[in-house]
Amino acid sequence: MPHAHRRLRINDEIVAGLTEGDVEGEVRFGAPEDIATTFLPRILGEFARTHPKISLAVTCDYTANLLDQISKGALDLALIKREPMGPDLGVRVWREPLVWVAADTAAVDATVLPIVVAPSPDIYRKRALAALTDQGITFRVAFASPSLAGQHAALRAGLGIGVLSAAMTPKDLAILSAESGLPDLHETEIALGSGLISPEPQAG
After folding, report:
1. What burial class does residue 84 get, using C-beta atoms within 10 Å of its C-beta: 0-12 exposed, 13-18 middle, 19+ buried?
2. Distance (Å, rounded) from C-alpha 124 to C-alpha 148?
C-alpha cells in the first residue's frame, strides 16, 4: 500500500504541473527514456483524457540535453534526474534508490568488472563509474545503450553488471546486496523542471 500511494502521489504531482496555469494549445514535455518508459504512459493517458484539446509533444533525451532545451525555450516542462541537492534544479517529485543489478551475481567476481550502462552524459552512468573509481574497483564498459530495453537485454544476456533505479529493475534480474563489495550508489532524485530553472553542470 505505501508503494501504491507513492505512485499515485507522483501521478498527481506531475499532472498538476502539466495543468498549472490552465495551459492551452501545445505542451512540450521531456523526460529521460527510462523514466518515460516506466512512469509516463499512465500520466500522459490521464492528461490526454482530461485535456483533449491540448496537444502533447513528448521528447525523450538525457537530462543534460533536456535542461539545454528548457533553457532555449524548446520545452515547457521536463522530468529530470538530479543529485539530491535541494529545490534549485526543478521541483522534486520523488527520490529513487539506485542499485547494482545482474543476471548472475557471480559477475562481481570478475577481475575487471564488466559494466552495462547508458552512454555519457547519463547521470546514472556518471554516478556508477565515479563510485567504482573512488573505491578502486577496476572496471570496463562492456555494453552501452541509450535504451532501457537494450540495457535490460544486455544484463539478461550476462554481459555485465548494471545500475538501475530500484523501481525500474525487472524481477528476473538480481539486485546485488552490500555484501557483494560494490559501492553504495545512494539515492537519485527526479524533479519536474520548467523554463524557470537554470541548467547546472552537475545534473549529468
Report:
1. exposed
2. 12
